[in-house]
């Protein structure tokens, strides 16, 4: 059963270009649905290359005056935005609940975590300073960071506020102008946020919003005035975006999908590990690139089997307690019917593969039009089962028993994503053994969602399906990405004080002035 809002309550999401709300040139829109009941809550513009051209040109026109401001002046405007986000957090979180399906606590965290990157960007006047060094006699080298120009950001559905803010704050405060392409599944949040940027005092054209799907993405990348692209989304599209940018000699960082492993040693603390595993795999309905996907229970054959059975029982018990809903503490739906069917497909294939479904989230599937699937736990007996190896992106935990530490490492390291991994143990030496050998970019010790916070930057492992392009996003990696280092080498050989100044100073017995002038070489 699908309900639809009355037409007057439906939000029409147009483009935001040069400070103006502009309908798409072709007049086409796509429905936006509330994932908890599939009711139509909005219509989002499907932009064409004409819309993209208009937005990129607006950003390009705004670049000279925006980049000419001091970093401090730009950071000051960003600081006002930070306050506005705080005072509008509840409103933004409500939009996130409605269009993404997160529960209210998760939605508020989405806003708060995005605002942390804003805080970091407000420190760029201190963090982005150039260096100076005397590299030879009378010769100094200094550098400064210049912005790139128009930066394009393409983002996924799963964090409507936070992921766009992996790019916007640092790109903007470092002096770039931006065109953002939100996910067509969750366009309402950023449509509201651009108005907060406007209220904060960002000049027209500095931030632009183009909505749409594939056509807008390819037009943005191909636009000759686009200088750099950040992408966050699934691996096949990340690779497509990265390859296209590379062919056009554009700077690009493209973050893709994930398959994250949690390794529980027999010496882990059962209660805290069980809680953390459940939060990691079922939080945000499993739709996080940092979510746990596979739990490897290490049973070293020295009488540890009973302990690992207790851990698994506690994980099942805690996951079973989760209730369906978008209120705080409950678990929301997945984003759409396509995603729901994909998740159910993995569970069904695992059954055919001989796996045991220890907790079956299919019991949540109903006829209210919502994309509900409950926490699911699968005990695999075959490592080649597709749910063990591919990104499921839903509240599904694959459990697999291994007989040694090395087997756990081999399974983790053979996965093609290399995004995140975590080890659970009460022994620091055991933890260090693992973090030296695990091949993933973001590692946790007793932390199931090991997201590095600023100044550490975020990103998967180069050379795997989790990251195409060689730079991270957020933190100090983002400063490197969004700027060019301009190096200036200067030579002021001494003495370079004009003769008449020396003569005048000697006449007036101002030896120290002459010495100083000679030494500094600045006259
Ligand atoms: P997606 O790849 O379907 O979409 C991401 C963006 O690409 C959207 O803006 C979409 O409009 C656009 N897009 C979709 N198809 C396209 C095409 N054929 N050509 C050009 N552009 C296209 O991803 P999603 O479903 O929105 O998000 C879920 C995925 O994002 C998961 O795989 C998840 O792991 C990943 N993700 C990764 C990270 C990370 O940091 N590595 C963070 C969040 C999400």
TrEMBL record:
<dbReference type="InterPro" id="IPR016161">
    <property type="entry name" value="Ald_DH/histidinol_DH"/>
</dbReference>
<dbReference type="InterPro" id="IPR015590">
    <property type="entry name" value="Aldehyde_DH_dom"/>
</dbReference>
<feature type="domain" description="Aldehyde dehydrogenase">
    <location>
        <begin position="28"/>
        <end position="484"/>
    </location>
</feature>
<protein>
    <recommendedName>
        <fullName>methylmalonate-semialdehyde dehydrogenase (CoA acylating)</fullName>
        <ecNumber>1.2.1.27</ecNumber>
    </recommendedName>
</protein>
<dbReference type="InterPro" id="IPR016163">
    <property type="entry name" value="Ald_DH_C"/>
</dbReference>
<keyword id="KW-0560">Oxidoreductase</keyword>
<dbReference type="InterPro" id="IPR016160">
    <property type="entry name" value="Ald_DH_CS_CYS"/>
</dbReference>
<dbReference type="InterPro" id="IPR016162">
    <property type="entry name" value="Ald_DH_N"/>
</dbReference>
<dbReference type="GO" id="GO:0004491">
    <property type="term" value="F:methylmalonate-semialdehyde dehydrogenase (acylating, NAD) activity"/>
</dbReference>
<keyword id="KW-0520">NAD</keyword>
<dbReference type="Pfam" id="PF00171">
    <property type="entry name" value="Aldedh"/>
</dbReference>
<dbReference type="InterPro" id="IPR010061">
    <property type="entry name" value="MeMal-semiAld_DH"/>
</dbReference>
